[in-house]
Amino acid sequence: MARDWIDEHLLGMPGCEKDWKAEWEWWRYQVGGKLFAATMTPGPSYDAAYAGRDLLSLKCDPAWAEALRAEHAGILPGFYADKRHWISVDLGSDVSDELLRELIGHSHALVFSKLTKKAQRAILGEGA
Predict the structure, then answer these.
(1) Domain tally for the chain?
(2) What's the rounded Cα separation, in Å, for the pair 58 and 89?
(3) What residues contact residue 75 under an 8 Å CB cut-off, 6+ apart?
(4) Could you list the residue range(s) of the whole structural domain that residue 93 is in?
(5) pLDDT exceeds cutoff 70 at 127
(6) Range list of H helices, 1-128
(7) What value does the mean pLDDT of the chain take?
(8) Rounded CA gap, 69 and 75, in Å?
């Protein structure tokens, strides 16, 4: 995967758990059992916009996702996901590391905020 720092950064998000989804050939990153990021390289049988690219898919606010796609050729509608709420970043594009870090934090925060307060406290190591 391009940009070797990404895996470590994702795993550094509070409560992050990583697993391999063999059927999809994706590395999935979850918080509280909910997906917030995934890395994949779709094969040649997929749409040319995605095929052969190293992608990082992230949950994203729909309005911001639309603006990002308009501004950055390397930010695509989410691969194999709800294209309003997910984006896929071509890791071989010129999307900056700074923006990627911001997008990862945003995705994690969106998913984390939907967890129950009890689950959030457990992830943060806080008492009941």
Answers:
(1) 1
(2) 8
(3) 65, 68, 69, 87, 88, 89, 90, 93, 95
(4) 5-124
(5) no
(6) 5-11, 62-71, 97-113, 117-124
(7) 95
(8) 5
Sorting pLDDT into bands at 50, 70 and 90, what band is 22? Answer: very high
**Cβ of 67: how many Cβ atoms within 10 Å?**
13
Q: State in Å, rounded, how far the first CA of the chain is from the last one.
A: 39
State which amino acid sits at residue 88.
S
Task: Please count the other Cβ atoms lying within 10 Å of the Cβ belonging to residue 115.
Answer: 17
d(CA 3, CA 9): 11
Query: Domain with 109 in it: what CATH number?
Result: 3.90.1150.30
Q: Output the six-digit token pair for 53.
A: 């690219």
Cα→Cα distances 101→97, 107, 118, 127, Å: 6, 10, 27, 29
